[in-house]
């Protein structure tokens, strides 16, 4: 019988949560729930205390994202998965083109491609661990891709496709719609390169799922109003026009999870106090660089994403050699309170996936890597 794996206590991270979502929640965010107390939790989301919190979040996100003139922060129910349906109903006029280089980019592509009121989508795909990009195409009115593919640890630039001019109100030009669910809050972005930059708050923003947020350009807002007035049937729950009207009132169409709003409010405040987007991007790069440097020097593993310029700074993926059992490593780590480093379930690789979101301490990442070495040696 093999001996159980042992990791000395002094090597363990101070916090062992490295999940790619839901992510580590800071203690101060949990404390914010207690501080909210009777003044917020258990009250109406259409009354001042909750609306004030939503207003602070929208303003704080605008500050963090360096919101350009005329852009607005909108929010709605259902997370990014629901937003894909909302975008198909309320942003795509006739045809979308997608760059799909992982599970989540492909899921959004399948939504617009399957919508019976839209033309079939153009879907440009790439093998897991690599990426592709959208290309200018006649008849396309939405170009979409993820900034960070959570399933594989591939990151893509956020910039308008070559040959596609920036959409402005009245131009009927194509929109650029970027899924930033696991990137926003931990990676830099120039919103002038996008028309919709949307995300769920359970990654770098360390809150609960169930909501989506997005920065919308004036052209995107015009598109929402245009399609809403076109006679297209749109379910109320998925209506971006409804989200626009309610967001401007600092509320949602139906009741949100208030605990998630409280934690998000605290995280956005914390990020801005630390130094905003530049600070967050530098912190995640520090953490992710530690993973990639370790993997490149290791006799056990190698970065899954081979091109350094494509490697994510917020979700790192590391392949292990065939004679090393990554599942056994993750099981031993979990037994010691170091959790959620398993690979994306559908990828099926001998791999670990380590989130380096802003709430994760870089020194905890280094401690994790030391623990992996210790476990692998014993196995």
Automatic annotation (TrEMBL):
Catalytic activity: 4-(phosphooxy)-L-threonine + 2-oxoglutarate = (R)-3-hydroxy-2-oxo-4-phosphooxybutanoate + L-glutamate; O-phospho-L-serine + 2-oxoglutarate = 3-phosphooxypyruvate + L-glutamate
Protein name: phosphoserine transaminase
Co-factor(s): pyridoxal 5'-phosphate
Biological classification of the source: Bacteria, Bacillati, Actinomycetota, Actinomycetes, Micrococcales
PANTHER family, sorted: ALANINE--GLYOXYLATE AMINOTRANSFERASE, AMINOTRANSFERASE CLASS V
Top-level class of the enzyme under EC nomenclature: transferase
Pfam family of the protein (one): Aminotran_5
GO BP annotation list: glycine biosynthetic process, by transamination of glyoxylate; L-serine biosynthetic process; pyridoxine biosynthetic process
């Amino acid at each position: 019988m093999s001996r159980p794996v042992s990791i000395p206590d002094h090597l363990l991270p101070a916090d062992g949560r490295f999940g790619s979502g839901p992510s580590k929640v800071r203690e101060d965010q949990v404390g914010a729930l207690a501080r909210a107390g009777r003044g917020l939790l258990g009250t109406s989301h259409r009354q001042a205390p909750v609306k004030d919190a939503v207003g602070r979040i929208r303003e704080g996100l605008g500050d963090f994202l360096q919101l350009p003139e005329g852009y607005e922060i909108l929010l709605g129910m259902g997370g990014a998965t629901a937003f894909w349906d909302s975008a198909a109903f309320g942003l795509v006029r006739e045809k979308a083109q997608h760059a799909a280089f992982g599970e989540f980019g492909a899921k959004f592509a399948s939504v617009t491609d399957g919508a019976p009121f839209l033309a079939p989508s153009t879907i440009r795909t790439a093998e897991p661990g690599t990426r592709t990009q959208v290309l200018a195409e006649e008849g396309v009115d939405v170009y979409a891709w993820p900034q960070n593919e959570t399933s594989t640890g591939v990151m893509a630039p956020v910039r308008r496709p070559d040959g596609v001019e920036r959409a402005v109100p009245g131009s009927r030009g194509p929109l650029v719609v970027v899924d930033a669910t696991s990137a926003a809050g931990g990676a830099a972005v120039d919103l002038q390169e996008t028309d919709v930059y949307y995300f769920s708050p359970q990654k770098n923003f360390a809150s609960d799922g169930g909501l989506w947020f997005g920065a919308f350009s004036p052209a995107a807002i015009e598109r929402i109003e245009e399609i809403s007035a076109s006679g297209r049937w749109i379910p109320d729950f998925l209506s971006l026009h409804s989200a626009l009207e309610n967001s401007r009132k600092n509320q949602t169409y139906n009741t949100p999870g208030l605990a998630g709003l409280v934690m998000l409010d605290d995280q956005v405040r914390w990020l801005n106090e630390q130094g905003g987007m530049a600070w967050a991007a530098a912190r995640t790069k520090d953490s992710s660089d530690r993973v990639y440097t370790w993997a490149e020097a290791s006799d056990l593993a190698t970065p899954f994403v081979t091109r350094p310029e494509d490697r994510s700074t917020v979700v790192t993926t590391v392949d292990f050699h065939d004679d090393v059992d990554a599942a056994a490593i993750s099981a031993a780590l979990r037994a010691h309170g170091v959790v959620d480093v398993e690979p994306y379930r559908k990828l099926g690789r001998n791999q670990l996936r380590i989130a380096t979101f802003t709430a994760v301490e870089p020194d905890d990442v280094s401690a994790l890597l030391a623990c992996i070495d210790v476990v692998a040696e014993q196995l």
